[in-house]
Amino acid sequence: MKIVIFAVLLAVASAKKFSVEKSGNTCAMLVLSGKVDATASNGTQDLGSMSLPFDSATLIADSNCTLIKLNLTSSVEVWFQLDGATAGAQQIQPIAKFTPVDVFPKVNETADVVFTADAFGSFSTNQSFLCKASVDHAFTTQQVTPVNFTLQATTDQLQIQFGNIVNGSFSSDTSECDQDKTSTPQPTSTAAPTTVLPPQQDISLNVTNGNVTCILMKGFFTISVTFEDTVAGKKVNRTGDLNIPADAVASGNCTLNATVESMQILFGNGWELDFLFSKDVSSSDDTSVSISEISVTYNTAAFKAASPVTKNVTMEKKGGFLKTNLGGYYQCNANSTCIDESGVKLTTTDFKYQAFRTKSDGNFYGSIAECPADEETSSVVPIAVGAALAGLVLIVLIAYLIGRRRSRKSGYESV
């Protein structure tokens, strides 16, 4: 019997999100990138191979709160099933299935072949499992077949959670995979020069629902990406800055649910900046709005990388970023960093946003929540002016006293 060996290359597709809902609530969610590779052999000759990226997958309708099923093609499925659901010991069981005749034209078998791989992960019911590293999952068949099949999946940027998922966001309490804990960076030489494209532009964006403009955002946005590249045959760390242009296109959803809205900003060649806005209604007297998740998808082809890659970085925060009151808006005129995660930094200037709006115009309204940098500037100005005025009064008083003294002395000499 011929042993078929094949190599799996790291997928460069962007991470894709899949969500399973029950009764209007998200009960299972998966984000990942990577691909699935398979070969077929009859023992004397190769009968074909396939390679399918996860970014082409779609969620299968009969997925449930303990099983996320993905269709990579009409005939190839990969499942992520909750396994060993005991206290503190949940794992993920990968399962794959395909119909040979639909995948390999030289194979006449019409019966589905089912594969399983070793379970992975260790996390509790209140946690999400996160594995940013590239991990290979080798599958084995569950039945004897006339044709030898090999199947292997490569996943990276994987995050998964089962249970009650609040506001469609992963729990901030994550369990890391061993590969992330032990991975060490590749040795690199001095960073190459920064690339900046194009010049900064003030952009205005909005999301509408019928006649209501539910989200407004404006400002100058710069995304900085640090990535590994090859220059003159050597591995180097490069940093590229991309300013979001004025022709960026915004879309979104004002009705994800009563407390969540979203905005997606598309620009460049495959770049995307996503915001998830959350409304905290825990207190009826002081309802707040914040950005609960920021996601950046970038393509290093913009920086003329030798081997361009597309990746996604998502940052979420329990309690939210950049909080403001409902009916008001957030403002930060100073240059500030919104996220700095996994080599990706988003900075803004003259930034404003307002979500959960109820008006149709394009004007910001209501109370203003200022960032700390603006508040410090606002405090410094009156203090500086007051100190200057106090100094001026003191100088005038001293000059008056000196003049008065000289006047008296001159008067005595003239007598």
Automatic annotation (TrEMBL):
Residues 204-358 form the Lysosome-associated membrane glycoprotein 2-like luminal domain. Residues 171-197 are annotated as: Disordered. Keywords: Cell projection, Cytoplasmic vesicle, Endosome, Glycoprotein, Membrane, Signal, Synapse, Transmembrane, Transmembrane helix. The chain crosses the membrane at residues 380-402. PROSITE patterns: LAMP_3 (PS51407). InterPro entries: Lamp2-like_luminal, Lamp2-like_TM, Lysosome-assoc_membr_glycop. Residues 381-412 form the Lysosome-associated membrane glycoprotein 2-like transmembrane domain. Pfam families: Lamp2-like_luminal, Lamp2_2nd. It is a single-pass type I membrane protein. Residues 182-195 have a biased composition (Low complexity). Its main location: other. It is found in: Cell projection, Dendrite; Cell projection, Growth cone membrane; Cytoplasmic vesicle, Secretory vesicle, Synaptic vesicle membrane; Early endosome membrane. Residues 1-15 form the signal peptide. Plays a role in short-term synaptic plasticity in a subset of GABAergic neurons in the brain. Belongs to the LAMP family. PANTHER family: LYSOSOME-ASSOCIATED MEMBRANE GLYCOPROTEIN, LYSOSOME-ASSOCIATED MEMBRANE GLYCOPROTEIN 5. This is Lysosome-associated membrane glycoprotein 5. It comes from Aplysia californica (California sea hare).
